[in-house]
Design a protein that fits this description.
Layout lengths: L3 H10 L3 E5 L2 H11 L4 E4 L3 H5 L2 H6 L3 E3 L4 H7 L2 H9 L3 E4 L3 E3 L4 E5 L3 H7 L4 E7 L3 E2 L2 H20 L23 E5 L8 E6 L6
The structure holds iron/sulfur cluster.
Iron/sulfur cluster (SF4) binds next to helix 8.
Length: about 200
């Protein structure tokens, strides 16, 4: 079990606002109370799906999420919804892995999530379960490749070899969903980031 207090200290030193919470339900309630009357983009994110953040935030905001069939139908395509999410004031996501030192690792096949983590929003909120925490960057990258991506591929029915949910096979296949990796060292200039750090296991 990792030292949460030390992790929070390391994240705050890097410039992140950190909210420490026990459960995902508390994280959803916190976001509901703090994000209102604005536009919200959500990345491809199992934590957001698990917490039904589209419904929670959709009560008082305009939400754009390419995982919602009704949004795809409304805007014409998944990419059209991704474009709307890319220009939303607020962006919601998680991290595929976080180091005890406070760095975050994310991997992506399409790139919309990485782009939004790096640029384009007034504020980003990252809901991260303590199950994503790794000792160092090497272990975080290993987790992203061998835990998060295979489980993601399995759930999404991706035809890459890791669709078996077991591990990375370094496939380089046309179906590969890890085409770029973003390592976030600090909040980006001009885009404050709040991390909701949750004891409960969340996402993949
Ligand atoms: S490289 Fe291929 S097998 Fe490895 S995690 Fe990425 S998509 Fe899966």
């Amino acid at each position: 079990m990792f030292d949460k207090a030390k992790l929070i200290e390391n994240l705050e030193k890097r410039g992140y606002e950190v909210i420490s919470l026990a459960t995902g339900a508390e994280a959803a309630a916190w976001l509901d109370a703090h994000i209102q009357n604005t536009t919200v983009g959500i990345g491809g994110c199992w934590t957001a799906k698990q917490l039904e953040l589209d419904k929670v935030l959709g009560k008082t905001n305009e939400v754009f999420w390419h995982w919602l069939p009704e949004h795809v139908e409304k805007y014409g395509s998944q990419n059209a919804v991704r474009d709307k999410a890319a220009t939303a004031e607020v962006y919601i996501c998680s991290a595929n892995a976080m180091t005890m030192g406070g760095e975050m690792v994310n991997i992506d096949g399409t790139g919309n999530r990485l782009a939004s983590l790096a640029y384009g929003h007034k504020h980003q909120y990252l809901v991260v379960g303590m199950n994503k925490v790794c000792e160092d960057l090497e272990k975080a990258i290993w987790r992203v490749r061998n835990v998060a991506t295979p489980l993601n591929a399995k759930r999404l029915g991706v035809k890459a070899p890791c669709g078996d949910g077991v591990k990375c096979y370094e496939c380089g296949s046309p179906a590969c969903i890890c085409r770029a990796t973003l390592i976030s060292h600090f909040p980006m200039n001009g885009m404050p980031a709040t991390i909701l750090l949750v004891d409960e296991e969340l996402g993949l």
